[in-house]
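Suppose you are handed only these lines of text.
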Amino acid sequence: AMRQLPYFCRGEVVKGFGRGSKELGVPTANFSEQVVESFPSDITTGIYYGWACVGNGDVHKMVLSIGWNPFYKNIKKSVETHIIHTFKEDFYGEILSIVIVGYIRPEKNFDSLEALISAIQEDIEEAKRQLDLPEHLKLKEDNFFHLPESKIVNNH
Ligand code: ADP
Ligand code: MG
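From them, the structure of the protein bound to adenosine-5'-diphosphate can be written out as follows.
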C-alpha cells in the first residue's frame, strides 16, 4: 500500500470542500494542498488507520482517507483525517500531527448513503482493533507527538 509505514506527518487543518462529512457523523480534518504535495507521489489511495493529535492535545485513534480531490478535477490528492474522538469545537487552523500506521482498503464507490456509512463504521472498528495491538499501541507514545508544534515534519 505505502512503502514506508509508519508515516509521520504534521500540518495545518484547512477548510475542505464541504462534502458533508460532518453531516454523516464523520468530520474529516483536511490537510492543505502543500502538505498533500509533500506525500510520496506513488502513495496508494484508500483508507488507512493511525494516531492523531491536535496541537499539543491528547493522541487519539484515527482513520485516514487518501483520495482524489474533486476540487482539482481529481488530478490532485486529498488527505483527510477522521479522529475517533468527540471534540467540543472545530479546530480549523490548528496543527494536526498524524502517524499513518496501516492500510485498510482501497477507495470504493457506494450504491447508497447507507452502504457508505456502514463501510465507514467498519473502517473505524477495524482501526480500533488494529491500533490496540502492542506493536501499534507503542506509536501512540512516540516522541513525534511531543515535539514543538511549530516544527513541520514529513517523515523526517
Ligand atoms: P471540511 O469540508 O471543511 O473538511 P468536514 O465536514 O469534513 O468539513 O469537517 C471537518 C472539520 O470538523 C475539521 O476541520 C475539524 O475542525 C472539525 N472536527 C470536529 N471533530 C472532528 C473529528 N473527530 N475529526 C476530524 N475533524 C473534526
Ligand atoms: Mg473534511
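What can we learn from it? The chain is about 20% helix and 30% strand. Residues 13, 15-18, 21-22, 27-30, 82-83, 85, 87, 90-92 surround adenosine-5'-diphosphate (ligand 1) (CB under 6 Å).
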